[in-house]
Design goal:
Blueprint (H helix, E strand, L loop, with lengths): L17 E6 L4 H13 L3 E7 L19 E5 L15 E4 L2
Parallel strand pairs: 1-2, 1-4, 2-3
Organism: Homo sapiens (Human)
GO molecular function: catalytic activity
Protein name: cDNA FLJ50333, moderately similar to dTDP-D-glucose 4,6-dehydratase
Length: about 100
Amino acid sequence: MSAACWEEPWGLPGGFAKRVLVTGGAGFIASHMIVSLVEDYPNYMIINLDKLDYCASLKNLETISNKQNYKFIQIFHSYVPLSLPMLMFMALTFW
């Protein structure tokens, strides 16, 4: 199986130059930064990890929701899967 068609956990396609994890990415500032990252760096996988609490909204992310290099993961507790940090090159935290 070639690396280009290998599927990573959570349905993330392989073959991206870098992976960027943004926690709290559905907030106002972070959501606008994510849109810029997705549009400016199509060879980076941008992963948005958010619990969608009172100040979060996915409305600002609608324009990129179907992009190949964007993935939203909703968490329901403060639990983050142990294998998630191994997928990341860089993490941006907005919590």
